[in-house]
Amino acid sequence: MKRVLGSAYFNLLKTILGCGILVYPSLYKNYGIIPTTVLTLISGFFSLSGLFLYVLTNKIINKKSTMSTISRYSIPSLRYVVDVVVILKCFFVTVSYMIFLKEIIPYGFGKLGFEYFVERKELGLLICLLISLPLNLLRKIDGLKFTSVFGIGSVIFILLTSFYRLIRSNSDKKIYYFTDNFSYYKSLGEFVFGFTCHQNIFTIQNEMEGVKIWELNCVMFMAIFTASLIYILFGIINYKIFGELIEGNFLNILDDDKLKIVTVVIYGIMILISIPLQ
């Protein structure tokens, strides 16, 4: 039972953690520490509330549900609308991952000695996607637990390297608890994007035979709590290090050293193995 709950935790947490973490230093720079932290916690709360509702609904219907079957039993007239929304959500998240991979391929492949792909980003991306193809063909999400553990380990590694850079930097960059920017609505999508994982909760629940609702609720709470903590720590630490130098993609402002090479490569692999979870 512990193995099943652990697999659910890692798969759900890895579904949450993706490219969204890279924008958090920029969010902290734009809005300040307190507003960004509060908005992160609010986003996590609403995401968790949605997960609770999905799990409870799935249990009530007891049909081994998906988003489609939930809508069929609750609002039949909107079933196909829900299907389209879910498909588009998964599609655009996957596309965002592919765009990110395409951006870092020239740097990553170049530093690893594969200069041929520096000017052939599309070919490099295609090879990466072909490498990940076997993961996309797995029939059960439980089969992705080891890649999820690796992905979470990658995020923790990046967080630890941020701690290391903070210690080494002796940064005196000025940080703000509040800023004059109150256009929070412009970044709501980024906060929401940081907690998108709902499409997998039905699969996770359906594969967990004999697990009580309260146990699954604890798993979901821990996944959202862990993701929120990682986002907040990562954002504040790098805001403290780089201050106003922060731009959209966090990786672009790192010093061009061996640590950056390792960070880019590991994070690229993490994003690649995140695609099957979509």
UniProtKB/TrEMBL annotation:
Naturally occurring in which organism (per UniProt): Hamiltosporidium magnivora
Pfam hit, one: Aa_trans
Primary location class: membrane
Keywords associated with the record: Amino-acid transport, Membrane, Transmembrane, Transmembrane helix, Transport, Vacuole
Name assigned to this protein: Transmembrane amino acid transporter
Domain Amino acid transporter transmembrane: 7-278
GO cellular component: vacuolar membrane
Topological type in the membrane: Multi-pass membrane protein
Subcellular location: Vacuole membrane
TM spans (from-to): 7-27, 33-56, 77-100, 149-167, 216-239, 259-277
Sample GO molecular function, one term: L-serine transmembrane transporter activity
Similarity field: Belongs to the amino acid/polyamine transporter 2 family.
Keyword flag Nucleus: no
